[in-house]
Design goal:
By secondary structure, this protein is an alpha+beta fold. The chain has one domain (50-266). The protein has helices at 15-19, 37-42, 98-105, 155-162, 171-183, 187-191; strands spanning 48-55, 60-65, 70-75, 82-88, 91-95, 114-116, 124-131, 144-147, 198-206, 213-216, 225-230, 234-240, 260-266.
């Protein structure tokens, strides 16, 4: 098989000097709106359970959270990763923007990071207020937890790589069915609203030699959870990935899979919470 990394050009004399140029962070976040520190703690106080949804293995379920409520996603029976989509509950065109979240916060997110919405709103949809896996950090392979790199497992890539095999429980399809059920939209219309995800509990990175996206067995265990403060009214959908802990493969009817629990809580911030304003750009685009 041909080497996809074939190098045909000889390095110039100053190749090492060019490689040695120091990097610059694309989006310095010194001026990025941050949640006041007390918010992170107040969102943990006075929790009152209002709703819960158990997401079956290899399936997805939807949920709703009002601005100021806390969404908790928990491992309950065994190591399992989940693919999360978020939409403005009143406007599906405003949805989670994983690429911009990645550009602002990094490839993986944890406590204090915010999940940003798509253009033109570009505002915080949710803030991570607790993460029981924040101890993991970055391991020796370059892996970390809760990624905003991966797009979600999908039946199109699966068919491409498998020679046409039809698999219907990829996270993309699971999320499509869950959104259709939640909204009454036809399946194909709902699919157009499914978007790149927050890979909850998934441990991923890039290989050092080829730069390829990798996954490894998640460190999540029953009792681990991540808490998100909803900053606007949200419709969400979570898929319990068919790869289980994603230690071997991610589109599988063989990998051990477990349910995920979604709980919605009122907290000390719920009453009187004010959603953030939409982005201030005037949308004139120079005209």
């Amino acid at each position: 098989m041909a080497n996809r990394r074939l190098k045909e050009t000889r390095p110039p004399p100053d190749a090492e000097a060019r490689r040695a140029v120091a990097p610059v962070v694309c989006y310095p976040t010194d001026t990025l709106p941050q949640p006041p520190e007390p918010v992170l703690f107040q969102a943990r106080e006075g929790l009152v359970l209002r709703d819960s949804v158990l997401v079956p293995p290899r399936e997805a379920r939807s949920f709703r959270a009002m601005a100021g409520q806390v969404i908790r996603i928990s491992s309950v029976e065994g190591p399992q990763v989940g693919d999360l989509n978020l939409w403005n509950a009143d406007d599906l065109t405003e949805r989670f923007y994983s690429g911009k979240t990645r550009a602002l916060h990094g490839t993986h997110v944890t406590t204090g990071d915010r999940l940003w919405s798509s253009f033109p709103a570009l505002r915080p949809m949710a803030t991570i207020v607790r993460d029981t896996l924040d101890w993991y950090g970055i391991d020796g392979f370059g892996g970390a937890v809760h990624d905003v790199i991966g797009t979600r497992c999908d039946p199109y890539t699966h068919a491409l790589l498998s020679g046409g095999d039809q698999y219907h429980h990829c996270c993309h399809s699971n999320l499509t069915r869950a959104l259709a059920d939640a909204t009454g939209l036809p399946l194909r219309e709902a699919e157009g609203h499914v978007h790149d995800v927050l890979n909850v509990f998934m441990c991923t990175g890039f290989t050092r030699d080829t730069g390829q996206y990798f996954m490894k067995a998640s460190p999540v265990r029953p009792g681990d959870h991540i808490d998100l403060l909803a900053e606007i009214d949200l419709l969400g959908a979570l898929s319990a990935c068919p790869g289980g802990d994603c230690g071997a493969e991610h589109s599988s009817d063989i990998a051990p899979c477990f349910p995920l629990l979604v709980e919605i809580f009122d907290c000390a911030l719920t009453d009187g919470w004010q959603p953030p304003d939409r982005n201030g750009y005037d949308r004139s685009h120079g005209r």
